Automatic annotation (TrEMBL):
One term under GO cellular component: plasma membrane
Subcellular localization: Cell membrane
Membrane topology classification: Multi-pass membrane protein
EC number: 3.6.3.4
Originating species: Rhodococcus coprophilus
Protein name: Cation transporter atpase p-type
Length: 783
């Protein structure tokens, strides 16, 4: 069995050349002997066949010696005995056939592994080694190791992004298929992050490095790929154990055939059909093929053992942040004090936070950049750990962070605090010139694909889903309830996580998924550790058995399907091959199968099981609906529109808040803004989904019924929108809102807000996750 290596060395090339020569010489000897026999020269034919047999004895003997050195006694010994036996009894043509069989089996096995490891090898060859660094107006090509955080790097068309960083140009068009397996190009704009290893599919762009080469995403993946050669998986070790009893069984049957038939020919025939055992060919080929298939989908698996264990898993333990949630806080709402402008508040806060490394500060800055706000450079910046940032921006002293809320805080501020507690949001208070001016609410949203992926994982054989998180109980329980988890453990330390994983492992094969440094010990403690490597820490990636290079949780479900299929094919191929060999041994023992015919039959068996094992390379046709290119583009378009619409849904709650406070004049004006939003933006979006998107999804989803419930929700959204318009018409006719209208207006506003948020989540989970994921910023106006 040839060991799979993702980086071909001179020894691997020498071995491949020797295998080729071995095959050519044995085939030539067999063919030359056949031609000589046809021409009537039986002596010359025998000489050619003997030469081919003797040539095969040398490597076969070497394989036996190598196995004995490793403490194994395998079926290679049967090969040596059968080759020697054919020469001893004068069955020279059978010996030549066995020689060809051994040579072709080795060649097929090696070719299968080379094909299966192409993706891993390409990953390493793809690694960049230099970068263009910009210094002032000059460009210099420097070794990748010379790049440090903060350097400005220029990436040319078709080049590989050499290091992790942020886009500094207006637009970068990128091909991320090498890491994620997704064929669609993605767009990144100013301030958005890019990972090393992806390809520039557009014009040249500039980026700012945020890490060294050693710490970059691609360097970590390359280190994993070097270790990802197919080790001896459990099913392969079982194969070795089976070989231990198959060898004595073969010798016993051969001895019985000799004693019962009184002829050594029968014994040699038994040895011939038992050589080599398909078990040792099929299992490794299927496992390595599974590794290759997984790597194409952005899943780097360290070993065949990890692949097999994944295929037998029954329990899944997960971290929350970065695994079930996006791991990137996003702004959900901007609340201002009366008379303040929300857009200006965000601009001031983001300007003050530009130099802060805090994750919430980064989220605020990114939110402002997505809205295309022009930020000012802060001065006199003071940052206090655990509190926030204070800086001077455009002549104003701006403070952003966890500011203490005074006892006599205004009503709007108390409302914000209550909303944050209910929604599990983090508040970044903003004070301008010493006065509380507003608040930014940020949450870590669930991954769109989380619920669908967990359903797929249950369907793949997992029967227990557990979440271990260091987060507070309230948001953890909320996530667990939405996703239908079997157990939720909150406020867990790294030691608690390790203990929890070990407890689960005692009762079932356990998979742990995480992405942070604090997850590394738990990943190492699990039967199979899976790291979200696209943005996860180096520590978690190094501790894991499997790394998801794409920032998509659904890749884990894909990997599990591949693991189960690969193991099933491996066992199936081995059992079929063994059964056929045992049947052939029985025929040979009773004299019904001469050595030459047995050699041909065994060759067919070996080829058949290897071809069957290569089925593990093929994709699972039922994995996901096939989408047309225009349908996928449509999904991305409506997904981007959702991001814009979600930002503007706050107008419903703001209007309801004004009604609740009794400010009917302001509520009347706000209701006009609601009407403009609903009929000018929201309802056209919903109608476009009904007339364009849903019909396009009918074919890949099987029927139009798959989107029928969403269309019904559109009808309800339309009904509530027209109710609100009717209330506005009454208010306009009466010269203002009447107190009698407040109750119905509150019910309609809160009902529509809840319905829209639920509807958006359902569409994103059921439909938008079918498309390849991009994080490109939308071109639509978010303000």
């Amino acid at each position: 069995m040839t060991e799979a290596s993702p980086t071909p060395s001179w020894t691997a090339r020498l071995r491949a050349r020797a295998e080729f020569i071995f095959l050519v010489v044995t085939v030539a000897a067999l063919v030359a002997g056949g031609l000589a026999w046809i021409l009537g020269s039986s002596t010359a034919a025998d000489v050619c066949w003997i030469v081919g047999t003797v040539i095969a004895i040398v490597p076969a003997t070497w394989w036996v010696i190598g196995a004995l050195r490793r403490g194994r006694v395998g079926v290679d010994l049967i090969a040596v005995l059968s080759l020697v036996g054919t020469v001893a009894i004068g069955e020279y043509v059978a010996g030549a056939l066995i020689a060809v069989m051994l040579a072709s089996g080795q060649a097929l096995d090696a070719a299968a592994e080379r094909r299966a490891t192409t993706d891993l090898r390409a990953l390493l060859e793809h690694a960049p080694r230099t970068a263009r660094r910009r210094v002032g107006d000059e460009l210099e090509v420097v070794p990748l190791e010379a790049i440090v955080p903060g350097n400005r790097v220029v990436v040319g068309p078709g080049e590989v992004v050499p290091i992790d960083g942020w886009v500094a140009s207006d637009l970068a068009v990128l091909d991320e298929s090498v890491l994620t397996g997704e064929p669609m190009h993605v767009q990144r704009r100013v301030g958005e992050s890019v990972r090393s290893g992806i390809v520039n599919a557009g014009g040249a762009f500039e980026m700012t490095a945020r890490s060294t080469a050693e710490e970059s995403t691609y360097a970590g993946i390359v280190r994993l790929a070097r270790d990802a050669a197919a080790e001896s998986a459990p099913v392969v070790r079982i194969a070795d154990q089976v070989a231990a009893w198959f060898l004595p069984l073969t010798l016993i049957v051969a001895a019985f055939a000799w004693l019962a038939g009184g002829s050594a020919t029968r014994a040699v025939a038994v040895l011939v059909v038992a050589t080599p055992c398909p078990l040792l060919l099929a299992a490794p080929v299927a496992i390595v093929s599974g590794l290759s298939r997984a790597s194409r989908l952005g899943v780097v698996i360290r070993s065949g053992g990890a692949l097999e264990n994944l295929g037998q898993a029954k329990t899944l333990v997960m971290d929350k942040t970065g695994t079930l949630t996006s791991g990137r806080p996003t702004g959900t709402d901007i609340v201002t004090a009366p008379g303040k402008d929300a857009v200006e508040l965000l601009r001031l806060a983001a300007s003050a936070d530009q130099l802060s490394p805090h994750v919430l500060a980064e989220a605020i800055v990114q939110e402002a950049k997505k809205r295309r706000l022009t930020l000012s450079m802060p001065t006199d910046v003071i940052e206090q750990a655990g509190t926030g940032v204070t800086a001077t921006v455009d002549g104003h002293r701006v403070s952003v962070g966890a500011l203490p809320l005074p006892a006599d805080a205004p009503g709007w501020a108390r409302t914000v605090a209550n909303r944050a507690a209910l929604d599990g949001a983090v508040i970044a208070w903003v004070a301008v010139d010493g006065d509380l001016a507003g608040a930014l609410l940020l949450v870590d949203p669930l991954r769109r694909d989380a619920a669908r992926t967990l359903r797929r994982l249950r369907g793949a054989g997992l029967n227990r889903l557990v979440m271990l998180t260091g987060d507070r109980h309230e948001p953890a329980e909320a996530v667990g309830a939405v996703l239908g988890l079997d157990a939720v453990c909150a406020e867990q330390t790294p030691a608690d996580k390790v203990a929890g994983v070990r407890a689960e492992r005692r009762s079932a094969v356990t998979v742990m998924v995480g992405d942070g440094v604090n997850d590394a010990p738990a990943l190492a403690a699990a039967t199979v550790g899976v790291a979200m490597g696209a943005r996860g820490s180096t520590a978690s990636s190094e501790a894991a058995d499997i790394v998801l290079t794409a920032d998509r949780l659904d890749r884990l479900a894909d990997a599990m399907v591949i693991a189960r299929r690969s193991r099933r094919i491996a066992v199936q191929s081995a059992v079929i091959g063994m059964s056929l060999s045992l049947i052939a041994m029985g025929f040979a023992a009773f004299g019904y199968l001469p050595p030459a015919v047995g050699a041909l039959l065994q060759e067919c068996i070996d080829v058949a099981v290897i071809i069957n094992a290569l089925r593990a390379l093929r994709s699972d046709r039922a994995r996901a609906p096939e989408l047309r290119e225009d349908t996928e583009a449509m999904l991305h378009r409506f997904s981007a529109e959702h991001e814009v619409l979600r930002d503007r849904l706050s107008v419903l709650r703001d209007t309801a808040q004004l009604l609740a406070e009794g400010d009917l004049v302001a509520a009347h004006a706000a209701l006009r803004r609601v009407d403009t939003f609903l009929f000018g933006t929201l309802l056209p979006h919903e109608r476009a989904e009904d007339t364009e998107l849903y019909p396009a999804l009918a074919e890949p989803l099987g029927s139009g019924e798959a989107t029928a419930t969403m269309s019904r929700m559109h009808a309800e959204i339309d009904r509530l929108s027209h109710r609100l318009r009717a209330q506005l018409t009454q208010a306009d006719a009466a010269g203002g809102l009447h107190p009698d209208q407040c109750e119905e207006l509150l019910a309609d506003l809160y009902g529509l807000s809840a319905l829209l948020r639920l509807h958006f989540v359902q569409e994103e989970e059921n439909y938008f996750t079918l498309a390849s994921e991009t994080d490109s910023a939308t071109d639509l106006d978010r303000s």
